[in-house]
Write a structure and sequence with these properties.
With 391 residues, the chain is an alpha+beta fold. The protein has three domains: 109 residues, Orthogonal Bundle (Butyryl-Coa Dehydrogenase, subunit A, domain 1), CATH 1.10.540.10; 109 residues, Beta Barrel (Butyryl-CoA Dehydrogenase, subunit A, domain 2), CATH 2.40.110; 149 residues, Butyryl-CoA Dehydrogenase, subunit A, domain 3 (Up-down Bundle), CATH 1.20.140. The chain is built from twelve helices and ten strands. The strands form three sheets. A four-stranded mixed sheet has the order 1-4-5-8. A four-stranded antiparallel sheet has the order 2-3-7-6, covered by helices on one side. Strands 9-10 form a two-stranded antiparallel sheet. α4 packs antiparallel against α5, α7 runs antiparallel to α8 and α7 runs parallel beside α9. The longest helix has 37 residues.
């Protein structure tokens, strides 16, 4: 089926694919085993290819591209290594709240620095008691004169100690529930702001994960993003934008697994024939291809709808994240099964791809949370239709 890419979008996709083949795939196993942050690769992406958060508007030194172009980029990066892709893409996640709610001065100061590759951003939302339940945040921000004092711990923050700028969500009015959550810009090296130990993870091991720890951390009142009590909305809007890119990265992971399985099945000889001659293997590969391609179209559609500001963009972004995230693990698991004992060995990339793929149904909202949101939207749509019929 046609993907309706412009010549510029095709060239962008091809450029990132070439970069992935030359710079990421040769070192992905080593990065995974050493759990080494891919600083050199990130530096080349943002400074040599000028791909630092491509959706940053031109007035803030960005490329002025859309979420769709970002999806094309992360799809190709994830095809090489989801850990590298995550380390690269999280800066965009951290910057989204600033682009959504920041003042012109805040955008000039922070978005421009990220666009030029001078700084990295991170997203500080999750806590031990507030993963899917964002409204249960415990981190507080108390205003005192011209400062806010932050206290609390953020958990599982990607690129925690590698970032320079953090969008941090904290409670400013406990009695108002989710409407009492606000968002703040926190800079690295602010007194009272430290990091926890590096987490040991199943997958995406070259992507660093730590706690953000705030102990009487004082930040200027001017670092408030937007208005007090609007942080919950900024968080949801950020995630609605980013989930399409996560879906695209899942497509990249699934594509990698499919390619490996096809190549293996074509070369692996059993009973004097390649195993690709067996119908059971043919059907597995066909099913994998269907999942990859259907996921790609849903992810692309969601990204385009975000750029169009379509009223249903959040629903499609949610569906894409749920569908593609689950597909990635399914396709990777099937690829490993086709490869048998070889797939289980660390000498081959598929076991790493399988470990990496699992996070796609967990971070930025579990599959179950996405389905809850889709169901809620369906019920809302049904009620609206009934109201129209009555009219």
């Amino acid at each position: 089926m046609p993907l309706f890419l412009t010549d510029e979008q095709k060239a962008l996709k091809e450029t990132v694919r070439k970069f992935t083949e030359e710079e990421i795939i040769p070192v992905r196993q080593e990065l995974d085993e050493k759990e080494e942050y891919p600083a050199e690769i990130i530096n080349k992406l943002v400074k040599d290819l000028l791909l630092a958060c491509p959706f940053i508007p031109e007035e803030y030194d960005g490329a002025g591209l859309g979420v769709f172009e970002s999806a094309l980029i992360v799809e190709e990066l994830a095809r090489g290594c989801l850990g590298v892709c995550t380390a690269y893409a999280v800066s965009g996640l951290g910057l989204y709240p600033i682009l959504i709610a920041g003042t012109n001065e805040q955008k000039l100061k922070y978005a421009s620095a990220v666009a030029r590759g001078e700084k990295i951003a991170a997203f500080g939302l999750t806590e031990s008691s507030a993963g899917s339940d964002i409204g249960n945040l415990k981190t507080t921000a108390v205003k005192k004169s011209d400062i806010y004092v932050l206290n609390g711990v953020k958990q599982w923050i990607t690129s925690a100690s590698k970032a320079d700028i953090y969008s941090v969500f904290a409670v400013t009015d406990r009695e108002r529930g989710p409407r009492g959550i606000s968002c703040f810009i926190v800079e690295k090296d602010t007194p009272g702001f430290t990091f926890g130990a590096k987490e040991k993870k199943l997958g995406i091991r070259c992507s660093e994960t730590r706690e953000l720890i705030f102990e009487d951390c004082e930040i200027p009142a001017e670092n408030l993003l937007g208005r007090e009590g609007h942080g919950f909305r900024y968080a949801l809007e950020t995630l609605n934008h980013s989930r399409a890119a996560v879906a695209a990265s899942a497509v990249g992971v699934a594509q990698a697994a499919l390619e490996i399985a096809v190549n293996y099945a074509s070369e692996r000889i059993q009973y004097d024939n390649p195993i690709s001659s067996l119908q059971v293997i043919q059907h597995k590969l066909a099913d994998m291809s269907i999942l990859v391609e259907s996921g790609r179209h849903l992810a692309y559609t969601a990204a385009r709808m975000i750029d169009m500001k379509h009223p249903s963009h959040s629903r499609y972004s949610t569906m894409a994240k749920a569908y593609c995230g689950e597909n990635a693990f399914t396709v990777a698991n099937t690829a490993l099964q086709i490869m048998g004992g070889y797939g289980y060995m660390r000498d081959f990339p598929i076991e790493k791809i399988l470990r990496d793929a699992k996070i796609l149904s967990i971070y930025e909202g579990t599959t179950e949370v996405q389905k809850n949101a889709v169901f809620k939207d369906l019920m809302k749509e049904m009620k609206n239709r009934k109201k129209l019929k009555k009219c």
